[in-house]
Each structure stands twice: as structure tokens, then as C-alpha cells.
Amino acid sequence: MTQLILDQPLDLAAAREAVLDDARGACVLFEGVVRDHDGGRGVTRLEYSAHPDAGTVMAEVLAEVEADFGVRAVATHRVGRLEVGDVALVAACASGHRAEAFAACGALVDRIKQRVPVWKFQVFTDGSDEWVGLGEH
């Protein structure tokens, strides 16, 4: 999993394989899936865009989480047009014990959402649309 920002479907199994080894018995996997609603409105699709430095920032976040929690971590974010049910984010953390893996994966997802410059364009069932995340990174 060398590319961290992809314009193709994400692979949860590859994320699992990238973090597990014989010393790590706990693996927490996260899939961020496009849902059919947001803020009380129906969603038909999303389109994700990323800054050219998004992969670099993602790598920095991964390194920080690994150092802070003593885990092995990977994550990939998808860009382009996604439909309801498509996977937008995959994250995986593995450690020797479950508590560290759960804490690390939660922190990883939070940090990605806070710092990685990826923006979401939502299209609603009523024909309206909006950008989410612009100006936050």
C-alpha cells in the first residue's frame, strides 16, 4: 500500500496484510463508507478531491500514529466520484494488544479527517449540493 490517495476502489484485505505480522495479534480495520444521508438530507453521491500534498500529509499522520501508539498503521483515501455504499477511507492498525489497536485506529481516522487535505462535494437527492472541508486544511 504505497499510494495513500487513490482514484480506484480501496482494498481492506491489503490494509490488513500490510499491518499484521507474527508479533501483532490485534488488528483493527476501519472502512469509511458513503452513506445515503447527511444532516437530515438524502445523499446521492460524493466527489472527493485532494491537494497534491495529501499523500505526504497522510504519510506524516501515519508515522505519528505509529510512534504515538506503538502500532503499525496504514490508511488510504479515495478520490473521484463515489456512490452510496462505496468505500472512501480504509485505515488499519495492528499491535500486540487490542486496546492499543483500537485507540490508534480511532486516533488515525480523527487525524486524517483533521489534517489531510481532502475535500468532499456532496450531491443531495433534492438536487442541491455542497462542499465539505474547504478551508479546514
Q: What is the percent of helical residues?
A: 25-40%
Chain oligomer state: single chain
Number of strands: 9
Structural class: alpha+beta
User: How many DSSP H or I helices?
Assistant: 3
Question: Element order, helices and strands?
Answer: EHEEEHEEEHEE
The biggest sheet, with number of strands, parallel, antiparallel or mixed sense and barrel status, is: 5 strands, antiparallel
Poorly predicted sequence stretches spanning 5 or more consecutive residues: none
Q: What sort of overall outline do the alpha carbons produce when their principal axes are compared?
A: elongated
* Beta-strand content: 35-45%
- The radius of gyration is 15 Å
Distance between the termini: 24 Å
Average residue pLDDT: 95
Protein name: Molybdenum cofactor biosynthesis protein MoaE
InterPro entries: MoaE_sf (IPR036563), Mopterin_biosynth_MoaE (IPR003448)
Q: How are the secondary structure elements laid out?
A:
Elements lengths: L4 E2 L5 H8 L6 E8 L3 E2 L2 E10 L3 H16 L2 E7 L1 E4 L3 E9 L2 H18 L2 E7 L4 E4 L5
Parallel strand pairs: 1-5
Antiparallel strand pairs: 2-7, 3-4, 4-6, 4-8, 5-7, 8-9
Helix pairs in contact: 2-3
Which properties best describe this structure?
137 residues, alpha+beta, four-stranded mixed β-sheet
Provide a short characterization of the protein structure:
It comes from Luteococcus peritonei. The chain is of the alpha+beta class and 137 residues long. It has three helices and nine strands, in the order E-H-E-E-E-H-E-E-E-H-E-E.
